[in-house]
Specification:
Layout (H helix, E strand, L loop, with lengths): L2 H13 L2 H9 L2 H7 L5 H22 L2 H9 L13 E5 L10 H15 L3 E5 L15 E5 L4 H4 L3 H12 L3 E5 L11 H7 L2 E2 L9 E6 L14 E5 L5 E2 L7 E6 L16 E8 L2 E6 L11 H14 L15 H10 L1
Parallel strand pairs: 1-2, 1-3, 3-4, 4-11
Antiparallel strand pairs: 5-8, 6-7, 6-9, 9-10, 10-11
Helix pairs in contact: 1-4, 2-4, 5-6
């Protein structure tokens, strides 16, 4: 149900009440025909069932504070008009650590799709559609906090189907722990997404400094300043090669009291890359629930999705490290 339609349904349901609906469904054929001579019985019952479903959905939605926050924070429209109707398969089942923000991410993606019409999502916790035939009808795959994907997709045929899907010109979008998997059991997945989780020195409870690596890229239009502070859990990586992707947002690690595994203090947070004929957008943001109701983050996510789908133009060629490497070298030379 779209967010605007939910409001309309709520108004209708305020007029009706549950007991009335149950009573109407209990009417026998003769009384129903006498009371509603112009309505076919089965059609009327179908309408009542639909109203009952919508009534229930509205009540649950009304009590969902997370959903309210997301609806207020989400962009009102797509950054650019989609070139076509994009069907997107959203997979949200972890095979390792289960993030409590997974349902929040589902709500966030659902609201983004409903409000902006940038894509049409199909949400799943199953892997059965991840075959060459099953993926044919989709334009993109989104992995929402899917730890240890090598366990979920253990069959080579499924692994090949996913990677061939992207190489063939489709899109892949990953959020947070979508990178917590792959190597060494599925090295090709790590090569595709751009890096594999190797710990998180910068914990979810901290507020960390970030900088915009590529200010001209359309996926970064949500960030008005060159630098910003934000609270989320931030990874360090193994299997990461800056020359194979374009870093959009970086962690300004030298301004923190934590040390990671990079000799050049290179800790990418959001990036894009080409993979065959396809496009990949990944963001490390998304561990904390609040990330999914932060306006500039939802805009960043939407623009990343639209870039991966080919609606937004922007480069994927690698950029040289611009910040912490130079700082470290200058310190060591003094």
């Amino acid at each position: 149900m779209s967010w605007k339609y939910s409001v309309l349904v709520l108004r209708v349901c305020n007029i009706l009440n549950l007991s009335n609906l149950v009573s109407l469904l209990a009417l026998n054929k003769e009384s129903l025909s006498n009371s509603f001579p112009h309505i076919q019985i089965m059609k009327f019952i179908s309408i009542c069932i639909s109203l009952f479903y919508l009534f229930s959905t509205s009540i649950f939605s009304q009590n969902d504070e997370e959903l309210k926050k997301i609806e207020l924070a989400a962009p009102k429209e797509a950054s650019v008009k989609p070139k076509k109707i994009h069907k997107v398969l959203v997979y949200s089942k972890p095979s390792g650590f289960k993030h409590s923000s997974i349902p929040t991410g589902i709500k966030g993606l659902r609201v983004l799709a409903a409000k902006t019409k940038a894509f049409v999502p199909t949400f799943t916790l199953e892997t059965k559609e991840f075959t060459s035939e099953g993926l044919e009808k989709y334009d993109a795959i989104i992995f929402n906090n899917t730890t240890h994907v090598q366990k979920a997709f253990s069959e080579q045929a499924q692994r090949d189907a996913i990677l061939d899907f992207i190489k063939g010109g489709k899109a892949f979008i990953g959020f947070h722990s979508a990178s917590d998997g792959g190597m060494t059991q599925w090295q090709a997945y790590t090569d595709m997404i751009g890096g594999c989780f190797a710990g998180h020195p910068w914990g979810a409870g901290g507020k960390w400094p970030f900088f915009v690596e590529d200010r001209k890229h359309p996926v970064n239009r949500a960030f008005k300043d060159k630098e910003f502070m934000f609270s989320d859990e931030i990874y360090q990586y193994k299997g990461y090669d800056r020359s194979k992707l374009r870093v959009l947002i970086g962690l300004d690690s030298v301004k923190t009291d934590k040390k990671g595994n990079s000799k050049t203090n290179d800790y990418p947070v959001s990036w894009v890359r080409s993979y065959g004929k396809g496009r990949v957008f990944y963001s490390n943001f998304g561990h904390n629930k609040a990330t999914w109701w932060t306006p500039f983050m939802l805009q960043h996510f939407l623009d990343g999705i639209q870039w991966a789908l080919g609606d937004l133009d922007g480069p994927s060629k690698s950029l040289p490290q611009s910040r912490n490497l130079k700082l470290k070298l200058s310190k060591s030379s003094n």
